[in-house]
Description:
Blueprint: H1 21-48, H2 54-60, E1 65-69, H3 73-85, E2 90-95, H4 131-134, E3 140-150, E4 155-160, E5 172-173, H5 190-193, E6 202-206, E7 209-212, E8 217-218, E9 237-238, H6 241-249, E10 256-260, H7 264-269, H8 287-303, E11 312-316, H9 327-340, E12 343-345, E13 348-354, E14 359-364, E15 369-374, E16 377-381, E17 384-385, H10 388-392, E18 420-422, H11 435-455, H12 465-469, E19 479-480, E20 483-486, E21 489-491, E22 494-497, E23 514-517, H13 530-540, H14 543-550
Parallel strand pairs: 1-2, 1-7, 2-3, 7-18, 9-16, 10-11, 10-16, 11-12
Antiparallel strand pairs: 3-4, 4-6, 5-6, 8-17, 13-14, 14-15, 19-22, 20-21, 22-23
Helix pairs in contact: 3-11
Amino acid sequence: MYLPKQPVKVKESPFAVQKSRRFIAATGVAAFVTTAVASYFTLEKVRERQRRPDGVLLQHRNGKRVVIVGAGAAGCALAASITSACPDVHVTVIEREKKHVFHAVVPLAHVGHRSYDLNTTGGVDFLRSPATWNVTREAALVRGEVLRVDTTKNEVVVREDQEALTITARAETSEQPSKNVLTWPMGLPSWLLGASQPPVNEHRYPYDVLVLACGAARSLGPLQKFLTGEQVDRYRIAVNPGITRDCLVHLYKGTVLHVKVPPTSFAEGATGVRSISTMRYVSRQHDGTFIGTVNTVWRYLFFFNKQKFCPYMAVTADRGPSDALPIEVNERVMDFWKQRSVNFMPCTYITHLDPRRSEATLYNYQTQQKEVVNYQLLLLDLPLVAPEFIRKSGLSRSEAAEGFAEVNPHTLQHVNHANIFAIGDCAALPTVKSYGAVFAQVPVVSHNVQQQLLHGAHGTGEMSNAAVRSRFARYDGYSSFHIVMTTWRAMWPEMTYGGWRDNLSFPTITDAPLSLTNNHIWDNLAWADVRGFLNAVYYQWFLYEVMFYFVFTRGAWYPPKWFSVPSFGDDGTML
């Protein structure tokens, strides 16, 4: 007899990596599921922290009232700044619907090398940031459409959406609902967003200080005589970047006509060589968009060898790439376009458009000549229009304001109502509209609102409006934005008020040109080397969202200085 031999187990190191395909696949699936579940619960936890409990908010913030119309970049950043600086002030933010934090996150220039839609009919919306409804945890948030502002009673009349109404916002229901229904929401037009109208439920919100941060919508401008909203972003006519990208992909022959549409006031009064002197800043689109879109679309057609079959034409009523930008920027862009042989047509705009025949009549007001162009794809860079309630409320009475809020260009205070301010695209300011301008205006308006709350002339024994204005901080017209040159190269120009004269209420772009400034680490106009690459990385890697959520809305940094927050003394001077 003998005992059976015991099997000897092979010793394995507990730290050895198993090379089994089945083990690797199972580990990968487990890691993916774990990451997805952790991300879900993290996002839910962030959403739960979006605001303080209603009772606590009402108990601690029972002081004066500040109403902010608009929850975009300007509204969110301003609400966070005021609530952090004034612990007793009750802030109410009114927004029509959840949307992207600000449209400059993804400018139209990214149509050729992106794979998403922004505010298009495609329904792709994964870039939506929770910052709009999360960062203002100390503010009452109301989802509704502003119908009008009652300046005599200091009240904002809002038609609310009951599903998104927050209990923290104390409102007074009016007895008779308003009969005026706006067709233009606070962002893009309804025919671009495809949003349904909210139910009629009118409320009134009293305010001690009102801040308009509602932005501006894109408008067809002078083309509304030839086009309707249903014809845009459909066959052969594109506005939004996602639709533009899809049209370029499926285009194999025919002319691509890219037109920067001028404001209606310019097109109706443009006669003769001196017509450019009537162009104003207020209703112009974001000027960096057109230049970046030209560069991106040209690059797309060149890369896929479509230029021989799809001629590209860039048309603008400006005398250069953008008359609103400083001369140095225009010269740098024009040199680049000459190297690429871009078919650029300045001093030209559309006088007639036939969408059925796909024909556009172009008029050059310098040579006074007309040209009929048969296009296969029409790209439109549309001008801006302010929300209708601003004009209906008497906050834009001058014809030169074109429906935008009339404010002092330095203090951003309304010219007729001392307790009303405007910030961002809805303000009639003689500067270029951009996200950089918005963030530079936030600390100025925040300081001025605090001074108005403390010393505003609303009761007996208080200081006069003139004395209060002497304490205001002053905005110097700062604006900055990216200009896409190639896929991974970009300029980042900065500008301020240049030839400004206080006797000009609404100066034209020729009367008050902007001056180039430099607060960055390197040259603003450098784009062909590693500096331009780093500029491009800022928007290509979605650092807009990161900077907005973690820096700008936390009050940790506001332009123009790097990583600093402008602070002002009691006399309005910068400390």
